[in-house]
């Protein structure tokens, strides 16, 4: 495909993505309750503490709570059509099971969405992004408890009614399939992972499925023009060799993704899970009406894409790769990022085709980016910046493959780069692992001015949006 033929559809939603818990800070201001993130200072791997500790970078984040107007103005300067963010559940219901919502929390998101709309930027809102109210985690064991369906439904009704005239695009749970490997981070499950039974884990997953489908149902009733999607951690899996055993192992690994998208997009449990449940002595308890609720399927499928993995049935070759939740065997043909994530632009084209062939539903790439150590320097004019050509190349190469998928016939709604402004990493809770087009002067030891500086990639992405991707190489 030559450059002139590389076309993104008219109205393509270009933008960037953040999560409340990784950027807002203000963890104890204006009535906000504690979330699971506030007691997880070291990222995915823990340890979990009883109370917030000073070394948790997320407690201040990048102070987006107080600086959002400045940041959204910068997004508008880049030409964003959409901005993906999340609502902190414990800002709205501090304990999750409160009788009344917190008005100051609701007002903050009113103001945030108004600021986006002022610049013609559509909010894309994740309802639950890795931050269950801590009280729901400790008192109910998170999504293991069926009561969370009702608490989530109450929260959803509150925010849908409040923001129905401001938000057109919603996601129910962030990377919902990650609960398999990170039950506390993803599902607020307080039982330690090593003590959590498969029965309880998959019952928790069922509760999330029901809650997600309820959100779709309620959203369609309250906001007929809104689009509500699921969000999947997208990690394509390749067989390490053509050995049929590796092919079967790959098929089984892929079901860590497709089980979740199948239920969301088709409205029922896939047959292959019946065997899995039987072999693992799992009996999912369906409440009356659950089957009917699950039929409320999503309008589109969104996903994150950072890495691909390989799989093998050969236990001697099963050396787990670094840096991603699903592990997997490193691909000998790919290079790694500084954090051990293998860089595979063609994997994005592959998984876009996989999802579209399977469901024929619109797709939205809502996370993609390169975490790297950036060096803040002064340019010839004395302005502070970062020469992040490595990030430009990464994003360019992935967008070229997204364009290839569109040429393949895949319906892609939009693309939001992860961490469009530097933020605290979810997996490692570091600030030195930077993703953004905008450098934030804050360091892992808590020092820094929090000032914002435009990186070289800022101007590159601005040009991508202006040309609707025709400048890609």
From TrEMBL:
The active site is at 367 (nucleophile). InterPro entries: GH, GH_1_N_CS, Glyco_hydro_1, Glyco_hydro_1_AS. GO terms for cellular component: cytosol. PROSITE patterns: GLYCOSYL_HYDROL_F1_1, GLYCOSYL_HYDROL_F1_2. Gene3D superfamilies: Glycosidases (3.20.20.80). Belongs to the glycosyl hydrolase 1 family. This is 6-phospho-beta-glucosidase.
């Amino acid at each position: 495909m030559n450059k002139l033929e590389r076309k993104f559809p008219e109205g393509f939603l270009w933008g960037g993505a953040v999560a409340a818990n990784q950027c807002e800070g203000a963890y104890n201001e204006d009535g906000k309750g504690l979330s699971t993130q506030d007691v997880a200072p070291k990222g995915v791997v823990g340890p979990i503490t009883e109370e917030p500790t000073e070394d948790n970078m997320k407690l201040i984040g990048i102070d987006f709570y107080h600086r959002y107007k400045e940041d959204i103005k910068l997004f508008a300067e880049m030409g964003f059509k959409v901005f993906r963010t999340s609502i902190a559940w414990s800002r709205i219901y501090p304990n999750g099971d409160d009788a009344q919502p917190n008005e100051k929390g609701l007002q903050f998101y009113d103001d945030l969405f108004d600021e986006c709309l002022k610049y013609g930027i559509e909010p894309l809102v994740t309802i639950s992004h890795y931050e269950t109210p801590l009280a729901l985690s400790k008192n109910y064991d998170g999504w293991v408890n069926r009561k969370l369906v009702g608490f989530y439904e109450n929260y959803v009704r509150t925010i849908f009614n409040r923001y129905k005239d401001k938000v057109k695009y919603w996601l129910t749970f962030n990377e919902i399939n990650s609960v398999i490997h990170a039950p506390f981070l993803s599902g607020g499950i307080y039982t330690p992972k090593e003590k959590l039974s498969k029965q309880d884990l998959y019952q928790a997953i069922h509760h999330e499925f029901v809650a997600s489908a309820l959100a779709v149902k309620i959203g369609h009733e309250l906001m007929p023009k809104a689009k509500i999607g699921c969000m999947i951690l997208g990690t394509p899996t390749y067989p390490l060799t053509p050995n049929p055993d590796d092919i079967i192992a790959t098929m089984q690994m892929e079901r860590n993704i497709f089980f979740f998208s199948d239920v969301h997009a088709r409205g029922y449990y896939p047959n292959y899970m019946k065997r899995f449940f039987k072999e693992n002595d799992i009996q999912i308890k369906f409440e009356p009406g659950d089957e009917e609720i699950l039929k409320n399927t999503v309008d589109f499928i969104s996903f994150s894409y950072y890495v691909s993995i390989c799989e093998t049935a050969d236990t001697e070759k099963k050396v787990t790769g670094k840096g991603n939740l699903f592990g997997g065997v490193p691909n000998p043909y790919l290079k790694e990022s500084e954090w051990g994530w293998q860089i595979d632009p063609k994997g994005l084209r592959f998984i876009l085709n996989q999802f579209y062939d399977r469901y024929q539903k619109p797709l939205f790439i809502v996370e993609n980016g390169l975490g790297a150590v950036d060096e803040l320097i002064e340019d010839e004019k004395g302005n502070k910046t970062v020469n992040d050509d490595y990030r430009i190349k990464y994003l360019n190469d992935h967008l070229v493959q997204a364009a290839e998928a569109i040429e393949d016939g895949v319906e892609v709604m939009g693309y939001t780069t992860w961490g469009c402004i530097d933020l605290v990493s979810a997996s490692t809770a570091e600030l030195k692992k930077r993703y953004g087009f905008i450098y934030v002067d804050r360091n892992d030891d808590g020092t820094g001015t929090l000032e914002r500086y435009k990186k070289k990639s800022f101007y590159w992405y601005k040009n991508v949006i202006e040309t609707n991707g025709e400048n890609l190489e």
